[in-house]
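Interim report, section 4.2 (structural modelling).
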Amino acid sequence: MDRKIIAFLCNWCSYAGADLAGVSRFQYPANLRIVRVPCSGRVDPLFIFTALKNADGVLVAGCHPGDCHYTSGNLVARRKFALTKSLLEFIGIEDGRVQFDWISAAEGNRFAETATKVVEDVEKLEEWDRWGGEK
Amino acid sequence: MSVLNDIKLKAKELLEKGDVDVVIGYAKGTLNGKCTPYFVRNANDVENLVWENGCDINLANYLLKISDKAAVIAKGCDTRSIVNLVKENQLDRERVVIIGASCPSTESCQKCNHPDPVIADVFLQGETKVNNDDFSDLESFSKLPSEERRNYIYKEVSKCIRCYACRNVCPACYCKECFVEENLPAWIGKTTNTSDNMIFHLTRAIHVAGRCVGCGECVRACPMGVDLSILNRKIMKDVKELFNVESGLDLDTKLPLNDYKEDDPQYFLIGGEKCE
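Predicted structure of the assembly:
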């Protein structure tokens, strides 16, 4: 089955990492729909929750801590993500459904690996009910 | 009784001296055991004030809705909300006289660990039972199978009619335009489907993360009996364990989500350990 995954990638690192994966011809599944954001700090957990209304999984990636284009955007984001991930786990959302990673602009292979892993993880999960759907 | 007398005396004094224009406290509610917020503008009306079981409502929110110089009769959670509002530049500390008193409620908020005010201009101590942190409810919830947990939240959330009463009473929710009302882009569907309700409640829980003081106002205001305080309590526990911050205890600590440390835990990453 074709699972749809939304990837929020920061403009300066992870999006460039995805681009590098492309120009380097690293293969990764086509299930990803990439949304370019200025910084991982721009990712309001609302985006993740809303994405899960119409997709089966979410990947959020940004610059490695210390490498943020805006100095501390990803460090502030990190606290939000920690709480979001923990909350999702708490309410019974599977570990693989929403994943976070740091991917630099030089890590094209890491991007391809991460994308592959996320898609495989989500494919292994039961079909997602999209927050209970239209009930 | 003596605390109530002291409250009345202090309120009267502040009003008569003209130090404040209004004293915000509680009067008897129309239902037995319930108290209603009460604005005293005339010193003679202080006799209507009460301080007893049922004075639950968080009065901090009312300070934002008036511009007069005000005194507020505040228990633990009200003062913590006031601390946060001052820190977030929503409220001028100079405009408010805090008459702090130990929380008189005996029934509600069983797990409250801060019944006494954290800041006050006058502090009237009463008898309170101070609890230690008790997150046993979260621990037993965590032990349930994930499907059961999800279904519980779905069940709670599906009662919601999206009246936004929880948001309107919340002292941490003061945005002039809330994400649920934004149209360009429309972040969230306006239906009461479980999915839109889930997105609303999860996002609200995250938006008040590190600022929620657990006053329980959202649960009390809900006309449909939705109780999602477990989400707020879970975040409260995480904020304390991961970032070592408790919301609204002092004016100096930075808000946990406005701050960061080089070595903040990264359990959430791919391959990261589980967050306990």
